[in-house]
Each structure stands twice: as C-alpha cells, then as structure tokens.
Amino acid sequence: MLFSNINGINKKKIVLLIHNNPDGDALGSSLALFFYLRKLEHDVDLISPTEYSESFQWLPGSEDIIVFSDNTQSIVQQKIIESDYIFLIDFNNLSRINKIKNFFLYSKAKKILIDHHPFPFFFDFMFSDPTAAATSILVFRFISDMNNLDKIDKKIATCLYVGLMTDTGFFRFPSVTSETHFIAGKLIEKGIDIDYIYDHLQEKYNENRLKLLSKALKKLKVIQKYRTAYTSIKASDMKKNSYKQGDTEGIITYGLGIKNIIFSVFFFEEKEKYPIKISFRSKGDFDVNMFARKHFRGGGHKNAAGGILEKSLSEAIEYFLNIIPNYDKTLMFSI
Ligand code: 5GP
Ligand code: MN
User: Fold this and answer.
1) pLDDT in tens, 284-294
2) Among 139, 174, 202, which residue terminates a domain?
3) How far is CA 91 from CA 110, 151, 278, in A?
C-alpha cells in the first residue's frame, strides 16, 4: 500500500524528520531519501530540530535542510500539519525532535519509521531493524524493496555511504555484516569518490576543535578497577574555543583506545549550567543503552548511547561515580 502510493503518479507532500544534533547517519540516510523521493516527483522537505556539525555541510542537499529555529518555526509547523506522509529517520523517541514533537502529534499524516534503534514505538509503517549497522542500510533496503535501485545516483550513493561509514566507525564495529559491505559495494558501483568523502569527514577540522580535544584529553580520568575512562568539557571552554555543533564529536572514542578500558563516558556542558549531555561508548557486551535508559533518561545502542542530567557538571560526575560501583562485576568480567 505504502509502496504503491509512493511509487504512484500522485504527488504527495512528504516531510522527513531527523533527530536533534544529527549525526552522519541521520543526515546521510535522510538526504538520500530526500533525493530519492524527489526523483519520484513528490514534494519533499527535510527538517532538522537543530543545527548540525560543520563537517557535514558539504553533503549534497544539505543546503536544502530546514533547521528548526524561532525564524522557521511557523514554516515547520505548516509543513508538518499539511503533509501526507512523515518519515521519522534514525530515531524512535519523540524527545529527540524537541519542540517539533508538538506539531508532529497534531499532524494527520501517515507516519513511517525508518530506524535502527532498539525498542521502537509503533507508527503507521515501520522499517525497524535494531541489528542494522546504520539507518542508511534501511533506506537502501527501502529503495531496493521498491525495485528502484536504478534510481540511486552518485549523490544518493554518497549520502548513504556517509551514513554507513560514520555509524560503523569506518566499517569496524561489531554491527558490520556482509550486507554492510554488499551495500557499500553497490554504492561504489554508482561512482562515489571515497577519498573525497573521507577527506571531507575527517580532515577538515578547525583549530578550535583540536583545542577542545586537548582540554578533554588533559581531564581524562581512568578507573582501571572498573575498566572505565571519563572526561568532560565545561561551557566556559566551549565559549573560549568558539564551539560549533559537532566540535566535540569523537572525543569519547579516545577513552576506549586505552588498553583494558571497555567503557568510555563524556560529560558535556553544552549550555551554562543545565542540562549536562552525556555520551557513552562501550566495547563488547557491556550494554550502554540499558545504562543510559536506567540512569540518564537516554538510550541508544548497545555500544553507543547518550542521555542528559539536570545537574551541574560536578554533580553529574559525582552521580556517575556513585552508580558505577554497582556495575563492578559486569565491567570486570565483560568481554
Ligand atoms: P552521541 O553520544 O553521539 O550523542 O549518541 C550516541 C547514540 O546514542 C546516538 O546514536 C543515539 O542513538 C543515542 N542517544 C544520544 N543521546 C540520546 C538521548 O538523549 N536520548 C536517547 N534516547 N538516545 C540518545
Ligand atoms: Mn543518529
């Protein structure tokens, strides 16, 4: 039903929604869908609840993304209320679209979820697979299931490849399967320039970003007993280094690079005072999704999750340090 409606001759109004602080997979998978649905001649808009990292501003189509703000609020509201279909891409928790949630709940549009996070909510149509390494894989399957792989051009392939690359840590996480590489291969056949993509994702850092990284590395603490590393960044450091969305991306991975460490945590004072944003990464079977859900009003995946706390930075760290001994056995014996 959905496929015949979308493949049919009637032009539909379609809104694509992604989560706040969108990452490479949210942006890549949604931009790919954006181009694909436009090729089917629909009226498509892509809306982000917040700004996104400078390192993604080269992505094809990124200039067409409507970023929610006081200035765009009424247009976002109108688009959502008037749409026939709304796709929720790379998230399944409505708290991740901030104020847009209020418009979304009013809309009579059919709602379609394309996402790889665990515990999906039910929408009108679901393309959910928590075992998929990236939402971009689900978008590829979506296009494939409609027998439209020939519609994937270099632009669409580039966007999907960015999603695959970023959500698999450059094809190295345990979530990578032969399908991940099969799809990557199909995308390469469309003529994407891997060197260009890599260069634009990794090698265009501004100086401030490296200074923030150095701050965080100086503060890195290791608790060998719990095989845990954590660090933080204060709002004043962000200000000093003219923080821009995305500048703290990747900081958390350094902790996991230490021998024997399987749990890395990053506290991030995004605004003066509250709330504190916390990122979690793990290796092996220590489930940070459950950890973030239980203690930090958050969620994510088994090895990558996030959450928030209405506390000051030092209180948040103290809160964390009080919880962690409860997990001593799990952390010590985790493989
Ligand atoms: P990051 O640490 O890069 O912000 O997020 C890692 C993963 O955790 C994301 O892909 C997302 O799945 C999840 N995540 C991050 N922050 C939150 C949050 O506040 N709530 C929920 N439910 N998931 C989050
Ligand atoms: Mn994402």
Assistant:
1) 999 999 999 99
2) 202
3) 17, 25, 17
